[in-house]
């Protein structure tokens, strides 16, 4: 990919890497169509609400410590700031640091949509700088400011000489892309173009792109075996830390969807190797990833020793739980960075995936390859029915209604509750480290076991609730509203 | 004009989707970007029969911005009627269609003969706050769905209070208001929450009057209803919390509805007896806890800022410091609300600020002398601030992260007791 850090705009995933949000078929078909380039996404003539890319972009940036984020738009856009405030306090406390990041809105009103409000925006940026002396300032647009043509780039350029910290425009018009993960790319682009400096020296650090660094203590400990130091991005990152990520030995990520823009960009611009294996979930994933990390950083011997030690402790325990999971059937719905990874882990645990939904699908990664998680499944003859749907819950419910699986696994807020109302036990795969490495794979297996062992909660609720979809809908095919699919 | 929202405490007009969500079996259909619903939703009781992630949405894209999204809106409404089992479909427009000029009214009018009612409200984010959005939904129901009734049901009263979900206690409060009104032998009618919905909406025109319990929210809607449906209204600006205000409230409602004064006094007497039985038993805790001081500040919307100030002053004998109203109250209502803050016992007057800039609010609180531990009732943003001042803090206004409320409430006699329980739970945990 060619990354242009001189332009504050990032092309959407649809345009850049052919990502789609509408497809129904099978995993093997999806993959073969991606490889031969015939895959085209479908649109829907009926859809339910999903997620705004600005939420992904700005929540990522707002995790950075002691920065200011100014979200130029009506009050609904900047309301993300309320959640960010809470998360930042909680995450900082958990790690024992402080985070004084501020997320400010501009409460744009009807007059502003007619006469513009860039002057006011300018005042607000300067006021925020005066109040908090942030370490960096991100100025974001919204749908409304985008359509009326507020020129936030010019405002930022004008202000730049007046303040002595990095300041950058972040283009977050929600209508640009149906793929909220485009927001991750937008945040990476903003960090790369404003904070990251060219390398001066090499360090024994590894850039570790994740969401909430919940496995930080154990990864710190593990990396000590290899004389490596992780820098977790962006939750609790400092601007100073970020300015040096070009000096790291490698970049890795917990979720390919989250990390692939940054990883590729650092490799392309500064020669920092990006580790492109399947992710660290499950045994095979963890070992594959760790071996590649060892290879890239020249620490293969230490890695092999670590793997051997860990296997002795955990493999017998995991084999024991597997006996009880064998034969279970699951439906899963997640972002593509997880769908195909979790499918693999479930296969490792002896659970059969009958249908997997990916909230979107990246036909190719930035380097032009088919996503590694997908490649792995195909090479190992794992195939199942698959669809791509941006959290279209009515499609999920139609599938659950037809398949009545033992288990539904989902990674997005508000999604698991619908499965349990269907009487299907559900596991909320919220934490990105939920099946990281040996220990968490074991815990994950036990969580599944506990979930299906006691189905009282979902049975009680399912008995007493009515589902909101009509009988008509349950009798339709899942692809009823996919427009091009029917042709 | 745009302004700084530092520690933001309200949403945009499209937050009206939560008002629709609070009407059982009513569903919002969003003509907006794909992520508006998720942004505007909270996890405080949102996974009901409908939840924000299943609200139909046109998910406007770049093409729709250029060519308009009316065709997509049509198919979304048409298919919502097929897929989703609801009683009322409320189309809400976001920023984009209103800027690019989609005629939502025209598309909705094509569904005039649909089996279920379809109405719409122009709730673009830039039109104002979610308080305003709430009014727009009630107006849409009045304008597009309700017709004037020739018959009235004796004693039937429509009760309107503050904004569902924005108000943590909305469900409990409206149920408790119903109970109090029913005790006056009136028949309450509300449209929000469990077991209410389209049938209650249908009864609205038959009411003898509307009762609005809010400093300003929905006042315009009451005027509209009076004009279109011929329903007079009683505006009671203070959320009645505790014995003093609730008794006053019952007397005023009784008088307006021509309820026999003896009946009203009997109801009041019964409640006050029990209320003061409880207060008497705990009076030692209130006086001798060494932790709760006399001075307090509330940082909340007009409803709670006013209601709690009156309660703490008139029932518990505390003294108000500066009070902060953070809901961007429209200017035309501010004087009347400020006057209410001056009607406290013993000629006490509370200083009130209408302020949406949390930075300024926090500085004022820091500078104020509370003569001891400050008592701050506010949003989650006030938690760290109050801790820094070694004060006592209770999370009563949005955003809420410190409290889970299923159907608890602060209104009425019982509500006052609940608020006391919450405040003194903070006090007794202080040195735990």
Radius of gyration of chain A: 23 Å
CATH topology title of the largest domain in chain B: Rossmann fold
Superfamily (CATH H level) name of the domain at 51-177 in chain A: Nitrogenase molybdenum iron protein domain
What strand line-up does the widest sheet of chain A have? 1-11-10-9-12-13
Strand content of chain A: 5-15%
The structural class of chain A is alpha/beta
Give the helix tally of chain B: 17
Mean pLDDT reading of chain A: 94
The helical percent of chain A reads 40-55%
Largest interface by Cβ-Cβ < 8 Å: A-B, 74 and 76 residues
Calculate Rg of chain B over CA atoms: 22 Å
**Based on the structure, what is the oligomeric state of the protein chains?**
heterodimer
What is the assigned CATH homologous superfamily of the largest domain in chain B?
A: Nitrogenase molybdenum iron protein domain
* Class of secondary structure makeup of chain B: alpha/beta
CATH architecture of the largest domain in chain B: 3-Layer(aba) Sandwich
How many helices of chain A?
21
Characterise the protein shown here:
- The complex is a heterodimer of chains A (487) and B (432).
- Chain A is of the alpha/beta class and 487 residues long.
- Among the domains of chain A are: 51-177, Rossmann fold, CATH 3.40.50; 205-301, Nitrogenase molybdenum iron protein domain (Rossmann fold).
- Helix content of chain A is 47%, strand content 12%.
- Chain A contains 21 helices and 13 strands.
- In chain A, helix 15 links the parallel strand 9 (329-334) and strand 10 (352-358).
- The longest helix of chain A is centred in the middle third of the chain and has 26 residues, at 300-325.
- By secondary structure, chain B is of the alpha/beta class.
- Chain B folds into 3 domains: 13-144, 3-Layer(aba) Sandwich (Rossmann fold); 156-256, 3-Layer(aba) Sandwich (Rossmann fold), CATH 3.40.50.1980; 283-429, Nitrogenase molybdenum iron protein domain (Rossmann fold).
- Helices cover 44% and strands 13% of the residues of chain B.
- Chain B has 17 helices and 14 strands.
- In chain B, the strands form 3 sheets. In chain B, strands 9, 10, 11, 12, 13 and 14 form a 6-stranded parallel sheet that branches. In chain B, strands 6-5-7-8 form a 4-stranded parallel sheet, with helices on both faces. A 3-stranded parallel sheet of chain B has the order 2-3-4, sandwiched between helices.
- In chain B, helix 11 (242-256) packs antiparallel against helix 12 (261-288) and helix 11 packs antiparallel against helix 17.
- The N and C termini of chain B lie far apart (47 Å).
- The model of chain B has no long low-confidence stretch (mean pLDDT 97).
- At the A-B interface, helix 3, helix 4, strand 3, helix 5 and helix 6 of A face strand 1, helix 2, helix 3, helix 4 and helix 5 of B.
